[in-house]
Amino acid sequence: MNVMPRARDPNRDRAKVIWLEHGGDITNRQIAEQLGVDEKKVAVWKQRDKWNVVQQSEENVVQLNEGDVVQQKRGAPKGNKNAVGNRGGAKPGNKNAIGNRGGSGGPPGNKKAVTTGEHESILLDTLDDDERVLFDFVRTDPLEQINNDIRICDIRIRRMMLRLQRVRSGEESKSTDRKYQLVEGAEGKPPELREVERVEKERAKLERELAIEDALTRVLDKKTKLLELKHKMLVDEAPPEESEDDGFLDALKGMTSEVWEDVGNSSKT
């Protein structure tokens, strides 16, 4: 039985327009609410269409309201052997995941969770190819999800620190606001996004510094909560004799203080 390819969802292009018009300063959930679609679908579109990478003829950079986004090559440098022999996963004897019922999902086509077939066709009909891969292989281990979120927080903190240094050194004295519009494609081709307006603005240095520091505070708070949640999960799974107070919360306070100390030092350089 041949399956006809599904037509491109028009909301996919509309979602990107909304994201661009907000300069990237809008969440997937907010976009999904405007379009009446699932938030995860917006996340897949964002990943697949590479919203964060916009080619620019000379600089290969796009500056949005929240700073510039540079296109970078993914993966480790050529010749890097850090991962040789690494099979991934936890070390032998690790018991962090004892008692949790998470997993990596089933292989493609796995139907172990289908009980009546009532929802199966509806679900599969609403997923595109990328979403089906994500559905089958996404890891649902709570501890692993938390670890991934912590890594993302660390990356964001680093980017904010670098951006703060650029603002203080005067490298980000201007911003570019762009407005995009969907234009019908020729000869039956799908609509394409075109820039219809561009406005250069002078940035207030102090205002930019405060905005980045506020955002940094929010990310640090989120990371602290994630670490507290991870610690609680590990303590709950540990034997009673190993679950006594180990000074973890005090260590978290020290971590936050070190970050703000680095922020203060960057303002002196």
TrEMBL record:
- Chain ranges of the PBSX phage terminase small subunit-like N-terminal domain: 4-59
Note down the stretches annotated as region Disordered: 67-114
- Name the source's superkingdom: Bacteria
Source organism of the structure: Paenibacillus azoreducens
Please give the name of this protein: PBSX phage terminase small subunit-like N-terminal domain-containing protein
Read off the Pfam families from this record: Phage_terminase (PF10668)
Q: Which taxonomic lineage is given here?
A: Bacteria, Bacillati, Bacillota, Bacilli, Bacillales
List the InterPro entries.
XtmA-like_N
